[in-house]
Specification:
four-stranded antiparallel beta sheet, globular, mainly beta
């Protein structure tokens, strides 16, 4: 695993830290903790562990630059013998959510303490993706057959519905989300939701093909 630093003078990325074998098996995901400095990175692996990496200033061994920044593993987390599938930080970076099968685990990234577990009701299906809804106390997840919206104030499912979802994207600016649904035969639909209601406020039907990825683009307009 390699960490790179952008050199403004040369306008190029330079290798900062190289970690040989960061996990016992392949790394499946990487994510930065939200914040201005970007000093925390989380890696997930098929070895069943997630690691929290932090950047720190150390003395330059050559003695020419005083101090240099480098990355190192601060802590390791796991939940039983399950494999982590997806992970996401809350908007302020104070909570790290990691999915294991049908279970969502909530961690404090400062001390790597497990704070809460959320478990989907039957049928037992693994969570494919999860994300926080910024500006709200909701967390959205989906499995092969169901969409779930969790209320983090009560740690319970706020609402759920049966859908065959291919992908999900959250509007970080407006607190909405969209899913690509293939529940209707020979049709692909984009369903736009507010986390408060299971009724989509807008539906777009595309009769031609499926959807592999979704994202929102921030603009200066209210569209």
């Amino acid at each position: 695993m390699k960490f790179w630093k952008f050199d403004h003078s040369s306008q190029k990325y330079e290798l900062n830290t190289r970690v040989e074998s960061p996990h016992k098996k392949a790394v499946s995901a990487l994510l930065f903790q939200p914040g201005k400095r970007g000093d925390v990175v989380v890696s997930l692996s098929f070895d069943g562990r997630f690691k929290i990496w932090t950047r720190a200033e150390i003395a330059d061994q050559k003695g020419t630059e005083g101090h240099v920044s480098t990355w190192s593993c601060r802590s390791t987390g796991f939940y039983r013998d399950y494999l982590p599938h997806d992970a996401v930080f809350s908007e302020d970076g104070s909570i790290l959510a990691v999915s294991y099968g049908q279970i969502v685990t909530l961690w404090n990234p400062l001390d790597n303490a497990l704070k809460m577990t959320l478990c989907n009701s039957t049928p037992v299906l693994p969570i494919r993706q999860l994300d926080f809804i910024p500006g709200t106390h909701f967390l959205v997840t989906y499995t092969q057959e169901y969409l779930y919206v969790w209320n983090l104030l009560t740690c319970s499912v706020w609402w759920s519905c049966m859908l065959k979802i291919q992908c999900l994207a959250v509007d970080k600016k407006r607190g909405k989300f969209v899913v690509c649904d293939t529940s209707v035969p020979k049709k692909t639909r984009l369903l736009f939701f507010s986390p408060e209601s299971p009724v989509p406020f807008y539906v777009y039907t595309n009769l031609r093909a499926g959807c592999q990825s979704l994202c929102f683009i921030e603009t200066d307009t209210n569209e």
